Amino acid sequence: TVTQNASGAFTGATITDKQGNKSSFDSKGRLTKIENNQEESRYISIYYSGDTYKFSYICDGNQREYRFYYNSSTQLLSGIHYIGYEEVHYKTLNYTYDSNNNLTRITYGDGNKDTQFYYSSSHLMTRASQENDYLLYFNYTTSTAGLTNKVKKIEEEADLGNNTSSGGRIDFTYSHNETTIQDKSGHTNIYQ
Fold first, then answer.
1. 3-state SS, one letter per residue, for the chain
2. Per-residue pLDDT reduced to its tens digit, 38-88
3. Distant-in-sequence contacts of 90-98, Cβ < 8 A, 24+ apart
4. Smallest Cα–Cα separation from 35: which of 53, 49, 15?
5. Are 26 and 12 spatial neighbours (Cβ–Cβ below 8 Å)?
6. What span, in angstroms and rounded, lies between the C-alpha atoms of 106 and 82?
């Protein structure tokens, strides 16, 4: 359903899928509401910062809120605050960036956990670590003229004090209109 004002200008739209679930959009084309098809309907409301496409907050069907905060100079996401309902729970994620606007750290509200990200000179993420004991390594295809680098392997490793333990691995293979993903155990998914 598309709505228009008296002069015929687009004011919003609602899309209903085959199961009766609805997605509503405002006059800027921004998603503002997702509603299920249940007898007692539940929905998620999405609010934006002014005329931008940046989230201000999201409220789910149980009146829990996720508030979004942005750095005033870079406009990058600087934090997400979760506010529960009734049994009020506050949780926070804070984001830090380097001078190239690469995400370098996520700090969790309890102050006990911290995830750090490291980049190559070409701004590709090479490693992510949590509390310096759990690591993910990212390997990329070699860039050729006109083609972007693609992830070819992600490996995990855990630092268990006196020894290091290898964890899982995911390999990516690319061909024309197809990506194959295979895990350490040989399980394969092909996407076309």
1. CEEECCCCCEEEEEEECCCCCEEEEECCCCEEEEECCCCCCCEEEEEECCCCCCEEEEECCCCCEEEEEECCCCCCEEEEEEECCCCCCEEEEEEEECCCCCEEEEEECCCCCEEEEEECCCCCEEEEEECCCEEEEEEECCCCCCCCCCEEEEEEEEECCCCEEEEEEEEEEEECCEEEEEECCCCEEEEC
2. 888 789 999 999 888 999 999 988 788 999 999 988 899 999 988 877 666
3. 97/71
4. 15
5. yes
6. 15
Mean pLDDT, all residues of the chain: 83
Could you tell me the two tokens for 128?
């992510």
Task: Reply yes or no on whether the pLDDT at 132 is more than 60.
Answer: no
Q: Does pLDDT of 109 surpass 80?
A: no
- The residue written with tokens 């789910």 in the block is 60
pTM assigned to the model: 0.68
The one-letter code for the residue type at 36 is N
Q: Are 46 and 65 in contact (CB under 8 A)?
A: no
Q: Alpha-carbon dihedral of residues 112, 115, 173, 140, nearest 10 degrees?
A: -150
Token readout for 162 is: 């006196």
pLDDT of the residue at 158? 75
Which residue's structure tokens are 């911290």?
114
Please answer whether residues 140 and 149 qualify as being in contact, where contact means their C-beta atoms are separated by less than 8 angstroms. yes
